[in-house]
């Protein structure tokens, strides 16, 4: 057994600062939490659950190491190929835990297939082809299903029609799998709702999200991972002098969803593409700062990357510091509720029984 001594546990579901110093004993899971044998409140560090990035793309191993050192003990891969690359990273016990969708479902001729090099098998030609795609993904051991939703009126990129989107979402649900849908316009959000997907990722920055769409998200319990740090990168790469206005619109749309009661989780779309790269690890801390900017409290922002993220993906074994939970932990100096920036420089990260010092 290993012990973290004289730490204060910050409960992400509480708005209170961390409590009295404790000693936390763990192996792969937390086995005991006791009052500190040698309490010293003046020097006690703060202990939080490991952070979860709900939208990444796998690439160079060194980038994933950086993510772990930044406190990310779980990452959700929403588009990586080939499956053998994903399997290799998932078997690497020196990296964060990885949930993966592998290749996303898109229309034949999509940007994902023609430009990004995803396999032809990821193209779904119609509702009747959904079962073939889902069987292929399940056969490769995925944890969830990623679907590309395009707005036919906003792009020439081939788009899956709503009947195909619905067949994918319903087929995934029958297999016990969540669906996460790429959507970057208000119309794409509406198509995702029509299809019945569980999570929408990205956020429109072309115009305000209609109130009716936001109301539907609340009614259906559809969650959003807005990846504001990625939207900033796209705006800067594509929109020139209009980038700031687009980003203000993206922030306003997330603020409107949050105020209406839509559950927002933290994701970055971390990737290594030359077009609009987003750095693995540190970008999640930028995303949390954006979530505070849209009106979340610091506690809500931390929950978006811990307990709320874990609950969204059915990860009941993490997201909180309690006996029986995975020993996925982050130790920081200072109080993140008072100063969120201290979370960006962990003094120590624990994943499983491994301890990684700053």
- Please trace the helix and strand order, writing H or E for each element: EEEEEHEHEHHEHEHEHEHHHHHEEE
Radius of gyration: 20 Å
| Quantity of strands, as a count | 14
* Proportion of residues in extended strands: 15-25%
Low-confidence stretches: none
The dominant shape is globular
Structural class determined from secondary elements: alpha/beta
Instruction: Note the gap between the termini.
Output: 21 Å
Mean of residue pLDDT values: 95
- Specify the biggest β-sheet: 7 strands, mixed
> What is the subunit organization of this protein?
single chain
Order of adjacent strands in the largest pleated sheet = 3-2-1-4-12-13-14
Helix content range: 25-40%
**Continuous helix count:** 12
Keywords:
single chain, 358 residues, alpha/beta, seven-stranded mixed beta sheet, 14 strands, globular
Short description:
This protein is 33% helix and 19% strand.
Structure description:
- The chain is built from 12 helices and 14 strands.
- It has 358 residues and is of the alpha/beta class.
- The strands form 3 sheets. It has a 7-stranded mixed β-sheet with strand order 3-2-1-4-12-13-14, with no helix packed on it. The protein has a 4-stranded parallel β-sheet with strand order 8-9-10-11, with helices on one face. It has a 3-stranded parallel β-sheet with strand order 5-6-7, with helices on one face.
What's the topology here?
Blueprint: E1 2-9, E2 22-26, E3 30-35, E4 45-49, E5 51-56, H1 61-69, E6 72-77, H2 83-90, E7 97-100, H3 111-114, H4 130-139, E8 144-148, H5 162-174, E9 178-182, H6 186-195, E10 199-201, H7 211-220, E11 223-225, H8 228-238, H9 243-260, H10 282-293, H11 298-304, H12 307-312, E12 329-332, E13 348-351, E14 354-357
Parallel strand pairs: 1-4, 5-6, 6-7, 8-9, 9-10, 10-11
Antiparallel strand pairs: 1-2, 2-3, 4-12, 12-13, 13-14
Helix pairs in contact: 4-5, 5-6, 6-7, 8-9, 10-11
């Amino acid at each position: 057994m290993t012990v973290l001594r004289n730490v204060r546990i910050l409960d992400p579901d509480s708005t209170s600062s961390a409590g009295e110093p404790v000693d936390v004993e763990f192996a792969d899971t937390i086995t005991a939490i006791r009052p500190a044998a040698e309490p010293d409140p003046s020097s006690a560090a703060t202990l939080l659950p490991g952070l979860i990035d709900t939208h990444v793309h796998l690439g160079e191993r060194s980038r994933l190491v950086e993510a772990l050192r930044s406190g990310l003990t779980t990452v959700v891969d929403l588009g990586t190929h080939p499956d053998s690359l994903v399997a290799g990273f998932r078997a690497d016990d020196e990296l964060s835990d990885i949930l993966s969708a592998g290749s996303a479902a898109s229309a034949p001729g999509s940007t994902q297939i023609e430009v990004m090099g995803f396999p032809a098998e990821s193209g779904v030609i119609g509702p009747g082809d959904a079962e073939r795609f889902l069987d292929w993904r399940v056969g490769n051991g995925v944890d969830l299903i990623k679907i590309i939703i395009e707005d036919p009126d906003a792009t020439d990129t081939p788009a899956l029609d709503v009947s195909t989107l619905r067949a994918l979402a319903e087929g995934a649900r029958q297999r016990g799998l969540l669906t996460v849908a790429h959507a970057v316009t208000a119309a794409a959000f509406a198509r995702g709702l029509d299809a019945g997907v569980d999570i929408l990722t990205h956020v429109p920055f072309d115009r305000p999200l209609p109130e009716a769409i936001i109301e539907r998200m609340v009614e259906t319990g559809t969650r959003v991972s807005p990846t504001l740090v990625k939207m900033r990168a796209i705006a800067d790469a594509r929109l020139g002098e209009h980038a700031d206005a687009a980003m203000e619109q993206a922030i306003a749309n997330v603020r409107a969803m949050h105020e209406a009661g839509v559950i927002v989780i933290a994701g970055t779309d971390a990737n290594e593409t030359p077009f609009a790269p987003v750095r693995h690890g540190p970008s999640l801390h930028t995303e949390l700062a954006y979530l505070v900017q849209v009106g979340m409290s610091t506690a809500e922002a931390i929950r978006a990357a811990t307990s709320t993220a874990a609950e969204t993906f059915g990860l009941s074994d993490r997201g909180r510091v309690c006996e029986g939970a995975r020993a996925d932990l982050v130790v920081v100096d200072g109080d993140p509720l008072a100063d969120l920036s201290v979370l960006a420089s962990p003094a120590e990260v624990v994943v499983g029984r491994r301890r990684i010092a700053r």
